[in-house]
Amino acid sequence: MINPANAGRSSCPRRRSYTTRWDTIKERSGTSGWTLHDLRRTFRSNMTRLRVSRDTCEVLINHAPKVLDEIYDRYDRLDEKREALELHRMP
User: Fold this and answer.
1) What is the mean pLDDT of residues 39-64?
2) Which of 15, 31, 55, 14 has its CA nearest to residue 39?
3) How far is CA 75 from CA 20, 40, 54, 56, 64, in A?
4) What's the number of CA atoms in the CB half-sphere (13 Å) around residue 22?
């Protein structure tokens, strides 16, 4: 799942390591001015373009389900996630 919550805003050693890796990715790609949220939004938009169901898209980007869904719907949607990610696979 793609979940960039609070990237680089913590003094936690694990978070610093994450920030260092993120900076390395930007440096090696020769790009700047974008965030993990931009990647998440692009991924979500591409899933919709590929006609992946809204529910599956939301699960893939790790959005919390509505309270009643969380209580009553315990289905993990692994098959749907796998199928959606296969559609999104880069050639």
Assistant:
1) 89
2) 31
3) 36, 23, 15, 11, 14
4) 18
Q: If pLDDT is split at 50, 70 and 90, which confidence band does 48 have?
A: very high
Of 49, 41, 54, nearest to 80 (Cα)?
A: 54
Mean pLDDT of 59-64: 84
Q: For residue 14, how far is the Cα from the chain centroid? A: 19
Contact 70, 58 (CB under 8 A): no
Q: What is the mean pLDDT of residues 37-57?
A: 90
How far does Cα 81 stand from its chain's mean position?
A: 12
